Amino acid sequence: MGRFSRKQIVLSKAFYSSGDVIADRRADYARMLAEQGDHAAAAELMEQALDMAPDWAAGWDLCGSYHEKAGQIAAAIAAWRRLEALDDDGVFGARLKLAAHKAGPAGEGTAVGYVEALFDQYAAKFEESLVGKLGYRVPDLLDDLVNAEMARLGIGAFERALDLGCGTGLMGEKLRAKVAHLEGVDISAAMIAETARKGIYDSLSKAELVATLNARRADADLVTAADVLIYCGALQPILGALLPAMRPGGLVAFSLEAHDGEEEIFLRPSLRYAHGVEATRNALVVAGLDLLRFETAVLRFDRGAPITGILVVARKPAVELTAANDEAEGGDVAA
């Protein structure tokens, strides 16, 4: 059967087809067993299916998932190692799954192939699942903080805003009334297609977050990233690209999932990164941002459990303030 192309992998992931009728039939039985809660039997059947279709990337993904749910972590890791060898583009997130079980390095950047494929498939049911079932609140929470800072700073409106990871436009809907030109960027073409139907944004583009920021001049006076950086790992590369893309005095508002440990970042079994509260605060200060709001809140629910996150609104220092400070420091030296 050979290796799958990226397009074939995405289709295989969506439809769970191996190309072998008997292997597909066993996988269907395995899925039925998994739905009934018998994950160990489901994993055993998937192993049989994969004997017939050993290059079936989606099958190894399912097999690893069933083993994991059955508590057979060593077998799950073995399945994901097979998956990693087949999945050159990282569409299934095998490396992330191995890292989440301490069987490989987590890495610090975005797993582009995995995130793109995830949201390409998720786009059509994104709002129903996230807002309707999981109580997603991030756009509302960030918008409230931005509005409060606008009032405090005397900002009537923004000239140009950049909504990173715009998804289906949930954040954009909150921003639209206070932004003259609103630009949305997302790594998923399917997400872009969904939000284009709403007519919220003045422009939309499919691109990776850091590449987008690196390609810009200092033209954005507001940048938002609602539930986006949880897929990106380390903050330093993002902040390093963010500041040059912003106008002096511009605001940035974003959310993170939080953890209270000493680690800067922690990869959860959900394959989303949680960021340390104090490490995040320190990273923002070191990057040169002025912290305006730094709060923790419940962002949504996952399997009935609340997900606590960090909400940030920060400001890029204004040129005038920097110049004034330089003059003051110069005066002190001269004196």
UniProtKB/TrEMBL annotation:
<protein>
    <submittedName>
        <fullName>Methyltransferase</fullName>
    </submittedName>
</protein>
<keyword id="KW-0489">Methyltransferase</keyword>
<dbReference type="GO" id="GO:0032259">
    <property type="term" value="P:methylation"/>
</dbReference>
<dbReference type="Pfam" id="PF08242">
    <property type="entry name" value="Methyltransf_12"/>
</dbReference>
<dbReference type="GO" id="GO:0008168">
    <property type="term" value="F:methyltransferase activity"/>
</dbReference>
<dbReference type="InterPro" id="IPR029063">
    <property type="entry name" value="SAM-dependent_MTases_sf"/>
</dbReference>
<dbReference type="InterPro" id="IPR013217">
    <property type="entry name" value="Methyltransf_12"/>
</dbReference>
<feature type="domain" description="Methyltransferase type 12">
    <location>
        <begin position="162"/>
        <end position="251"/>
    </location>
</feature>
<keyword id="KW-0808">Transferase</keyword>
<dbReference type="InterPro" id="IPR011990">
    <property type="entry name" value="TPR-like_helical_dom_sf"/>
</dbReference>
